[in-house]
Design a protein that fits this description.
By secondary structure, this protein is α+β, with helices and mostly antiparallel strands. It has a 4-stranded mixed β-sheet with strand order 5-4-6-7.
Length: 120
């Protein structure tokens, strides 16, 4: 079991990898958390999951957490550490490279994204 972690309602993490128990989840210095809120009424889970996969693949060492949050009312919002970096209502549906740039600028400034760094 590679890095399996289970949480508890009191905010304490149980790490099955090495048996450690008791790390406080909310007390993570330098946390780099991405949240993708998507509309369940619009059936946008596949789109959100695909974008999550793209971000996790690109930033596997930089991100500490990625959350898919179900919502309603046509919502599709990407947040990094609670800061909105993409909102479908204002910017339309994101291309993965645009979201990767926005996330990179917050979690790994200066890092090259290779061909994704081309003109927007």
């Amino acid at each position: 079991m590679r890095g399996a972690t289970t949480g508890t309602t009191d905010g304490v993490r149980n790490d099955a990898r090495d048996g450690r128990v008791g790390d406080v989840v909310n007390d993570v210095s330098g946390a780099r958390r991405v949240e993708i809120e998507y509309c369940t009424q619009c059936r946008w889970l596949p789109r959100a999951a695909w974008l999550a996969q793209e971000l996790l693949t690109t930033f596997e060492a930089e991100l500490t957490e990625l959350v898919l949050r179900p919502g309603t009312g046509g919502v599709f919002v990407v947040r990094v550490n609670d800061e909105v970096v993409w909102d479908r209502r204002e910017q339309g549906f994101p291309e993965p490279t645009a979201v990767k740039r926005a996330v990179r600028d917050r979690v790994a400034p200066g890092r090259s994204l290779g061909h994704s760094d081309g003109p927007a």
